[in-house]
Amino acid sequence: MTDDPGDLVVSLQDVHAATDASAGHLVHGVLAASDIAVFPLPDGLDVDPMRQLQVLVAPDDPGDRLVERIQPMHLWLASLQTAAADRVLVIRLAHESRYGRGGADATAAALREAFEEAGEVWAGLHRLGLVPERPIGAGADTALAGVAAAEARQLAARLTLRLEKQPADLADCPLSPLCR
Q1: How confident is the chain (180 residues) per 10-residue block, as mean pLDDT?
Q2: Do residues 21 and 144 make contact, with C-beta atoms less than 8 angstroms apart?
Q3: Longest C-alpha distance within the chain, in Å?
């Protein structure tokens, strides 16, 4: 299911620090496919398999569109010997994002050739058209603050209270075709 969002905010989030999208943010990335997120890891950001991570995916101006938080299924941390500081984190998501576009499809031979020519993992992925030149654009942090506000509105609207009502007042519940 694809919901064309325009520009996306893709943020690697620390679940335990995430009081909102801005507070939990670790690094901006991109969706290379509907179920694959890619992040360039800055110096000082380490990946611990025990750390609780999520990938936040949302339009940069979400309005009423859903802000997704998707669990990682598998983390693949990579760098080349010639560019050890150019670390890239590829995450296979537990399920597809509604905002994903197509699929990442590259053979091992094409990846090897691109990495050899580019000398860096991210640049090699860019050569194959799997990621942009760099994912972080101007205003990414401002967009993330907007996403945090939209997510707060969505969470607040999630609960409908229908307590101490008459049977007829409860007939339009989610179990009835009337409210689907």
Answers
A1: 62 84 86 87 84 89 84 90 82 92 73 88 85 66 81 80 74 63
A2: yes
A3: 71
